[in-house]
Specification:
Blueprint lengths: L11 E5 L4 H9 L6 E6 L10 E5 L5 H7 L5 E4 L9 H21 L4 E7 L23 H20 L2 E7 L1 E2 L8 H4 E2 L1 H13 L4 E6 L11 H4 L9 H4 L18 H5 L18
Parallel strand pairs: 1-2, 1-4, 2-3, 4-5, 5-6, 6-9, 7-8
Helix pairs in contact: 1-6, 2-3, 3-4
Protein backbone atom coordinates (compact mmCIF):
# COMPACT_ATOMS: atom_id res chain seq x y z
CA UNK A 1 0.00 0.00 0.00
CA UNK A 2 1.39 3.39 -1.04
CA UNK A 3 1.79 5.86 1.81
CA UNK A 4 1.58 9.56 1.11
CA UNK A 5 3.73 12.29 2.58
CA UNK A 6 2.75 13.46 6.09
CA UNK A 7 0.20 16.21 6.61
CA UNK A 8 1.74 19.67 6.84
CA UNK A 9 0.01 21.86 9.41
CA UNK A 10 -1.22 25.31 8.42
CA UNK A 11 -0.38 24.68 4.77
CA UNK A 12 -2.10 24.93 1.42
CA UNK A 13 -5.64 23.48 1.29
CA UNK A 14 -8.61 23.40 -1.06
CA UNK A 15 -12.26 23.71 -0.07
CA UNK A 16 -14.88 22.45 -2.53
CA UNK A 17 -18.40 23.79 -2.16
CA UNK A 18 -16.92 26.89 -0.56
CA UNK A 19 -19.94 29.07 -1.39
CA UNK A 20 -22.29 26.89 0.66
CA UNK A 21 -23.50 27.47 4.22
CA UNK A 22 -20.88 25.29 5.94
CA UNK A 23 -18.16 26.55 3.62
CA UNK A 24 -18.87 30.20 4.38
CA UNK A 25 -18.84 29.46 8.10
CA UNK A 26 -15.56 27.53 8.03
CA UNK A 27 -13.81 30.13 5.90
CA UNK A 28 -14.26 32.63 8.70
CA UNK A 29 -13.96 30.30 11.67
CA UNK A 30 -10.75 28.64 10.42
CA UNK A 31 -9.24 31.62 8.66
CA UNK A 32 -6.05 31.42 10.72
CA UNK A 33 -5.69 27.69 10.07
CA UNK A 34 -4.33 27.92 6.52
CA UNK A 35 -1.42 29.55 4.80
CA UNK A 36 -3.51 29.49 1.65
CA UNK A 37 -7.05 28.25 0.94
CA UNK A 38 -8.20 27.69 -2.64
CA UNK A 39 -11.98 27.94 -2.90
CA UNK A 40 -13.84 25.85 -5.47
CA UNK A 41 -17.52 26.16 -6.33
CA UNK A 42 -19.80 26.34 -9.34
CA UNK A 43 -20.85 29.77 -8.05
CA UNK A 44 -18.51 32.74 -8.41
CA UNK A 45 -16.81 33.75 -5.15
CA UNK A 46 -15.84 37.40 -5.03
CA UNK A 47 -15.08 37.99 -1.34
CA UNK A 48 -11.70 36.27 -1.06
CA UNK A 49 -9.62 37.07 1.98
CA UNK A 50 -5.89 37.81 1.52
CA UNK A 51 -5.00 34.14 2.13
CA UNK A 52 -7.68 32.86 -0.29
CA UNK A 53 -8.14 32.48 -4.04
CA UNK A 54 -11.11 31.10 -5.95
CA UNK A 55 -11.75 29.02 -9.06
CA UNK A 56 -15.14 28.20 -10.55
CA UNK A 57 -15.20 24.44 -10.90
CA UNK A 58 -17.71 21.66 -11.39
CA UNK A 59 -16.99 18.37 -9.63
CA UNK A 60 -17.91 16.56 -12.86
CA UNK A 61 -14.93 18.17 -14.64
CA UNK A 62 -12.24 15.62 -13.85
CA UNK A 63 -9.60 17.27 -16.04
CA UNK A 64 -9.99 20.59 -14.25
CA UNK A 65 -9.88 18.99 -10.80
CA UNK A 66 -6.71 17.09 -11.68
CA UNK A 67 -5.19 20.40 -12.73
CA UNK A 68 -6.13 22.50 -9.69
CA UNK A 69 -5.89 19.88 -6.91
CA UNK A 70 -2.10 19.95 -6.90
CA UNK A 71 0.63 20.96 -4.43
CA UNK A 72 -1.77 20.64 -1.51
CA UNK A 73 -1.70 19.52 2.09
CA UNK A 74 -5.36 18.60 2.11
CA UNK A 75 -8.87 18.98 0.74
CA UNK A 76 -12.05 19.91 2.60
CA UNK A 77 -14.69 18.36 0.37
CA UNK A 78 -18.04 20.06 0.97
CA UNK A 79 -19.22 20.24 -2.64
CA UNK A 80 -22.22 18.41 -4.05
CA UNK A 81 -26.00 18.42 -4.22
CA UNK A 82 -27.03 19.11 -0.60
CA UNK A 83 -30.42 17.40 -0.44
CA UNK A 84 -32.67 14.84 -2.09
CA UNK A 85 -32.63 15.06 -5.89
CA UNK A 86 -32.99 12.97 -9.00
CA UNK A 87 -30.87 9.85 -8.60
CA UNK A 88 -28.94 10.41 -11.82
CA UNK A 89 -27.89 13.89 -10.69
CA UNK A 90 -26.83 12.58 -7.29
CA UNK A 91 -24.70 9.93 -8.97
CA UNK A 92 -23.11 12.41 -11.39
CA UNK A 93 -22.34 15.14 -8.86
CA UNK A 94 -22.12 13.55 -5.42
CA UNK A 95 -20.69 10.13 -6.23
CA UNK A 96 -18.78 10.57 -9.49
CA UNK A 97 -17.73 14.09 -8.50
CA UNK A 98 -16.37 12.81 -5.19
CA UNK A 99 -14.54 10.04 -7.01
CA UNK A 100 -12.91 12.78 -9.10
CA UNK A 101 -11.80 14.54 -5.90
CA UNK A 102 -10.37 11.37 -4.35
CA UNK A 103 -8.70 10.22 -7.55
CA UNK A 104 -7.19 13.67 -8.11
CA UNK A 105 -5.86 13.51 -4.55
CA UNK A 106 -4.31 10.10 -5.23
CA UNK A 107 -2.74 11.14 -8.52
CA UNK A 108 -1.39 14.41 -7.13
CA UNK A 109 -0.29 12.90 -3.80
CA UNK A 110 -2.55 15.05 -1.65
CA UNK A 111 -2.40 13.34 1.75
CA UNK A 112 -5.75 14.16 3.37
CA UNK A 113 -9.41 14.52 2.36
CA UNK A 114 -11.98 15.73 4.91
CA UNK A 115 -15.41 14.81 3.56
CA UNK A 116 -18.75 16.35 4.54
CA UNK A 117 -20.99 13.30 4.79
CA UNK A 118 -24.42 13.43 6.41
CA UNK A 119 -26.53 11.96 9.19
CA UNK A 120 -28.93 11.08 6.38
CA UNK A 121 -26.77 8.03 5.67
CA UNK A 122 -28.41 6.47 8.75
CA UNK A 123 -31.78 8.23 8.80
CA UNK A 124 -33.88 5.05 8.84
CA UNK A 125 -32.79 4.01 12.31
CA UNK A 126 -35.55 4.53 14.91
CA UNK A 127 -35.34 7.48 17.26
CA UNK A 128 -35.10 5.03 20.16
CA UNK A 129 -31.72 3.69 18.99
CA UNK A 130 -28.30 5.17 19.60
CA UNK A 131 -26.33 4.90 16.37
CA UNK A 132 -22.54 4.72 16.01
CA UNK A 133 -20.49 4.70 12.80
CA UNK A 134 -19.81 0.95 13.05
CA UNK A 135 -23.46 0.09 12.45
CA UNK A 136 -24.65 -0.59 8.88
CA UNK A 137 -25.81 2.42 6.90
CA UNK A 138 -29.60 2.89 6.65
CA UNK A 139 -30.10 5.88 4.31
CA UNK A 140 -33.38 7.79 4.52
CA UNK A 141 -33.31 8.58 0.79
CA UNK A 142 -31.20 8.64 -2.34
CA UNK A 143 -29.22 11.62 -1.04
CA UNK A 144 -28.27 9.49 1.95
CA UNK A 145 -27.34 6.68 -0.44
CA UNK A 146 -24.95 9.05 -2.25
CA UNK A 147 -23.30 10.01 1.05
CA UNK A 148 -22.93 6.37 2.13
CA UNK A 149 -21.41 5.53 -1.26
CA UNK A 150 -18.77 8.23 -0.92
CA UNK A 151 -17.95 7.04 2.60
CA UNK A 152 -17.25 3.64 1.03
CA UNK A 153 -15.06 5.29 -1.61
CA UNK A 154 -13.17 7.09 1.14
CA UNK A 155 -12.60 3.83 2.99
CA UNK A 156 -11.26 2.25 -0.21
CA UNK A 157 -8.88 5.13 -0.90
CA UNK A 158 -7.60 4.97 2.67
CA UNK A 159 -7.10 1.19 2.63
CA UNK A 160 -5.79 0.77 -0.90
CA UNK A 161 -3.93 4.01 -1.61
CA UNK A 162 -3.02 5.37 1.81
CA UNK A 163 -5.06 8.58 1.79
CA UNK A 164 -6.04 9.95 5.17
CA UNK A 165 -9.82 10.30 4.96
CA UNK A 166 -12.29 11.64 7.51
CA UNK A 167 -16.05 11.38 6.92
CA UNK A 168 -18.08 13.78 9.06
CA UNK A 169 -21.75 12.83 9.33
CA UNK A 170 -23.00 16.36 9.76
CA UNK A 171 -26.13 17.00 11.79
CA UNK A 172 -28.54 19.93 11.40
CA UNK A 173 -26.17 22.88 10.99
CA UNK A 174 -28.19 25.90 12.15
CA UNK A 175 -27.64 28.97 14.34
CA UNK A 176 -30.13 27.42 16.79
CA UNK A 177 -32.49 24.43 16.81
CA UNK A 178 -36.05 25.16 15.65
CA UNK A 179 -37.83 21.77 15.46
CA UNK A 180 -38.26 18.74 17.72
CA UNK A 181 -35.95 16.77 15.43
CA UNK A 182 -33.21 19.37 15.78
CA UNK A 183 -33.20 18.94 19.55
CA UNK A 184 -31.44 15.66 18.71
CA UNK A 185 -29.61 16.55 15.49
CA UNK A 186 -28.43 20.15 15.97
CA UNK A 187 -24.85 21.06 15.11
CA UNK A 188 -24.02 24.51 16.43
CA UNK A 189 -21.65 26.78 14.49
CA UNK A 190 -19.01 26.54 17.23
CA UNK A 191 -19.24 22.73 17.34
CA UNK A 192 -19.04 22.63 13.55
CA UNK A 193 -15.73 24.47 13.83
CA UNK A 194 -14.55 22.02 16.50
CA UNK A 195 -15.49 19.02 14.34
CA UNK A 196 -13.61 20.21 11.27
CA UNK A 197 -10.63 21.36 13.31
CA UNK A 198 -10.32 17.84 14.75
CA UNK A 199 -10.55 16.33 11.27
CA UNK A 200 -7.84 18.69 10.03
CA UNK A 201 -5.42 18.14 12.90
CA UNK A 202 -5.76 14.60 14.27
CA UNK A 203 -3.71 11.58 13.27
CA UNK A 204 -5.74 8.86 11.55
CA UNK A 205 -5.90 6.72 8.45
CA UNK A 206 -9.68 6.60 8.09
CA UNK A 207 -12.40 7.78 10.44
CA UNK A 208 -16.15 8.31 10.31
CA UNK A 209 -17.83 10.28 13.08
CA UNK A 210 -21.00 12.23 13.78
CA UNK A 211 -20.53 16.00 13.70
CA UNK A 212 -23.31 16.88 16.14
CA UNK A 213 -23.49 18.99 19.25
CA UNK A 214 -23.56 17.44 22.70
CA UNK A 215 -27.36 17.45 22.73
CA UNK A 216 -28.78 15.57 25.70
CA UNK A 217 -31.40 14.00 23.40
CA UNK A 218 -29.04 13.12 20.55
CA UNK A 219 -29.38 9.82 18.67
CA UNK A 220 -25.74 9.48 17.65
CA UNK A 221 -22.75 8.23 19.59
CA UNK A 222 -19.89 10.72 19.96
CA UNK A 223 -17.04 8.38 20.85
CA UNK A 224 -15.51 8.09 17.36
CA UNK A 225 -15.23 11.87 17.18
CA UNK A 226 -13.94 12.23 20.71
CA UNK A 227 -11.22 9.70 19.90
CA UNK A 228 -9.70 12.19 17.44
CA UNK A 229 -10.27 15.28 19.56
CA UNK A 230 -13.80 16.42 18.66
CA UNK A 231 -15.39 17.47 21.94
CA UNK A 232 -18.65 19.34 21.30
CA UNK A 233 -19.75 21.80 23.96
CA UNK A 234 -23.23 23.02 23.00
CA UNK A 235 -26.62 21.46 23.83
CA UNK A 236 -29.80 22.06 21.83
CA UNK A 237 -31.90 21.73 24.99
CA UNK A 238 -30.28 24.82 26.47
CA UNK A 239 -31.19 27.07 23.53
CA UNK A 240 -34.37 25.32 22.35
CA UNK A 241 -36.22 24.91 25.62
CA UNK A 242 -39.45 26.30 24.13
CA UNK A 243 -39.59 23.75 21.31
CA UNK A 244 -42.53 21.42 21.93
CA UNK A 245 -43.50 18.06 20.45
CA UNK A 246 -41.76 14.84 19.52
CA UNK A 247 -39.78 14.13 16.35
CA UNK A 248 -41.37 11.92 13.73
CA UNK A 249 -40.09 8.40 13.13
CA UNK A 250 -37.54 7.40 11.96
CA UNK A 251 -34.51 9.59 12.68
CA UNK A 252 -34.70 11.09 9.19
CA UNK A 253 -38.20 12.39 9.90
CA UNK A 254 -39.93 13.73 6.78
CA UNK A 255 -36.76 13.09 4.79
CA UNK A 256 -37.60 9.38 5.07
CA UNK A 257 -41.08 9.68 3.57
CA UNK A 258 -41.62 8.03 0.16
CA UNK A 259 -42.88 11.24 -1.37
CA UNK A 260 -39.79 13.20 -0.40
CA UNK A 261 -37.74 10.97 -2.68
CA UNK A 262 -40.23 10.09 -5.41
CA UNK A 263 -41.33 13.67 -6.07
CA UNK A 264 -37.76 14.51 -7.13
CA UNK A 265 -37.26 11.74 -9.70
CA UNK A 266 -37.48 12.97 -13.29
CA UNK A 267 -38.69 9.66 -14.69
CA UNK A 268 -41.75 9.96 -12.41
CA UNK A 269 -42.57 13.55 -13.39
CA UNK A 270 -45.91 12.51 -14.91
CA UNK A 271 -46.74 9.91 -12.25
CA UNK A 272 -48.70 10.98 -9.15
CA UNK A 273 -46.69 10.48 -5.96
CA UNK A 274 -47.17 11.00 -2.28
CA UNK A 275 -45.99 14.50 -1.42
CA UNK A 276 -43.26 15.07 1.14
CA UNK A 277 -41.86 18.06 2.93
CA UNK A 278 -38.48 18.90 4.39
CA UNK A 279 -37.42 19.42 7.91
CA UNK A 280 -34.42 21.72 8.05
Amino acid sequence: MTRLHPLTRHGRWVMTGAAGTVGRHLRGALAQRFEHLLLLDTAEIRDCAPHESAVRADLRDFALLREVLTDLDGIIHLGGIPDEADFHDLVDVNITGSFHVLESARINRVPRVVYASSNRATGFYPTTQSVNPDLPVRPDGLYGVSKAAVEALGRLYADKFGLQVACLRIGSFEPAPSTPRELATWLSPDDCTRAFRAALDADYGFVTFYAVSDNRGRWWDLEAGRAIGFNPCDDAAEVGARIAGSPAEPQGGDFASPGYTLSRQRHLSNVPTETGSSQP
